[in-house]
Amino acid sequence: MPTRKRAIAADTRRLVLHESGYKCGNPACHSVVTLDIHHLEQVSAGGGDTAENLLPLCPNCHALHHRGVIPADSIRAWKLLLLTINEAYDRNSIEVLNALSVLPDGHVFVSGDGFVACARLISSGLVLVSTWGYPRADFRGFDVPAYRLALSPRGKAFLEAWRAGNQEAAVQASGVV
């Protein structure tokens, strides 16, 4: 006789979804429409409903895992990556890195506000910054410096490892120890 699924506590569900930025835990997937909560260790095998044992997955990635296409080692690596990344960077930082990686020219120009918003990524060496030689005037006539931001080689290595689910390489590239 099949067992009924237990509802995961709302606080635990919120914590797990927050941890992943309300996105699929697969680094290569950014699905936000519907998310399933996957047990890393199945309840039938003794796994619990604690946040440490849960990872949000979109229905497609969840089904691929249960069909054996996505191995359990990848699921565990993604969970560990989220935990590691959340200790050092917020999800927005990861989105900035992803955005920089797909820009046609590989860089973007920002004002001081954009520079400050990326300060954690700049100071960690994942993003390179240089001043742009042509300041622009703001609405009050003052010169405003522009900064050129681009992924550093370390930033590229971090993203590549993160997307592949390689925790060891991602942590090494990120400088988080």
Q: How would you name the oligomeric state of the polypeptide chains in this document? A: single chain
Overall spatial form: elongated
Our count of domains comes out at 2
- State the distance separating the first and last CA atoms: 47 Å
Based on DSSP secondary structure assignment, what is the total number of beta strands? 5
Radius of gyration: 20 Å
Overview of the molecule:
There is one protein chain. The longest helix has 17 residues, at 72-88. The protein has helices spanning 10-19, 59-66, 72-88, 91-102, 112-117, 119-123, 153-164, 167-174; strands at residues 36-39, 54-57, 107-110, 127-137, 143-151. The mean pLDDT is 81. The chain has 177 residues and is of the alpha+beta class. It has a three-stranded antiparallel β-sheet. Strand 4 (127-137) and strand 5 form a beta hairpin. It is 44% helix and 18% strand. It folds into two domains: 10-88, no CATH class; 93-154, no CATH class. The chain is elongated, with a radius of gyration of 20 Å.
Helix/strand layout:
Blueprint (H helix, E strand, L loop, with lengths): L9 H10 L16 E4 L14 E4 L1 H8 L5 H17 L2 H12 L4 E4 L1 H6 L1 H5 L3 E11 L5 E9 L1 H12 L2 H8 L3
Antiparallel strand pairs: 1-2, 3-5, 4-5
In short:
By secondary structure, the chain is α+β, with helices and mostly antiparallel strands. Helices cover 44% and strands 18% of the residues.
Question: Which features would summarize this protein structure in a list?
Answer:
alpha+beta; 177 residues; 5 strands; two-stranded antiparallel sheet; three-stranded antiparallel beta sheet
